[in-house]
Amino acid sequence: MEIESKIDLLIKDLNLSIPANYKVVKDIFDNPYGYPALDPIRNEICKCIICGLYIASITLTNLLLERSLKYCLTIKYTKENKKEDANLEEVFIEGINKYDNNKADLESSINSACRQSLITKEQKKELKNFKNTFRNPYSHGSADIFKDIYIKGKTISIKNFNDESDFFKKCFEDDSNLEIPLRNVPTAQGLFITDIARENCFPYFQKVDVIIRQMLSNLKK
Q1: Domain count, the chain
Q2: Average per-residue pLDDT in the chain?
């Protein structure tokens, strides 16, 4: 009975979120890149946003960003250094070894993409900002997700930290009026992370999508 009620609640939540969220992501959802290497990830991000899985959409956007850079760098290198009569198993191997190896971190991929004219200097700057704002915090579970966000609470003695739920209630009672950095309060972060992700996931995805489409266009030149 309990499982059924949870499923009913999930369906209700989906029925509420899907129509509005589809309108938000419709343009990206309905316009594939035309590259099977990237479209499944783009498609899944859209579905996450549509279904209200906002944290998941950010972590998948991190994957799409890094995957798209390595893919475009590998393909560009292969096109410019193609060998006659190379078979499918070997044709991409040099590009993979150069741009898609264990040492190819996001920072170096961004720099390489700019040097190879796949992205502009402004886009390089923007992607490095995304790395520090979204990719690193969400992929590494860092408290930097909550940077510059404040909540109202009160100062109480840590000796009251015997029961987390009771401690939490005392910290955030109705008369709480002290602004506290959310980054410093791990017991409260879980209550706010979904709202933070809801606010940021689509703008982040949309900006990454624009850059990816430009990279793919540059790849054809």
Answers
A1: 1
A2: 88
Q: Domain range holding 181?
A: 2-219
pLDDT exceeding 90 applies to what percent of the chain? Answer: 62
Cα gap 194→112, rounded to integer Å: 34
Three-state secondary-structure class, residue 136: helix
Selection from 28, 27, 24 nearest residue 38 by Cα = 28
Are 205 and 63 spatial neighbours (Cβ–Cβ below 8 Å)? no
* DSSP-based three-state secondary structure for 179: strand
Reported for 132-141, long-range contacts at CB under 8 A and 24+ positions apart, including other chains, are: 134/58, 134/61, 134/62, 134/200, 134/204, 135/62, 135/65, 135/66, 135/106, 138/55, 138/58, 138/59, 138/62, 139/59, 139/62
User: What average pLDDT does this structure show over 74-83?
Assistant: 89
Three-class secondary structure of residue 163 per DSSP: coil
pLDDT at residue 163 greater than cutoff 70:
no
Q: How confident is the model over 172-181, as pLDDT tens digits?
A: 665 556 777 8
* Number of residues that make up the chain: 221
Give yes or no for residue 212 having a pLDDT over 90. yes
pLDDT score recorded for residue 175 = 58
Which residues are within 8 A (CB) of 114 and not within 5 positions of it... i.e. 6 or more apart?
Answer: 120, 121, 123, 124
Query: What pLDDT is recorded for position 158?
Result: 55
Structure token digits, residue 213: 């489409």
- The C-alpha atoms of residue 9 and residue 164 are separated, in whole angstroms, by 27
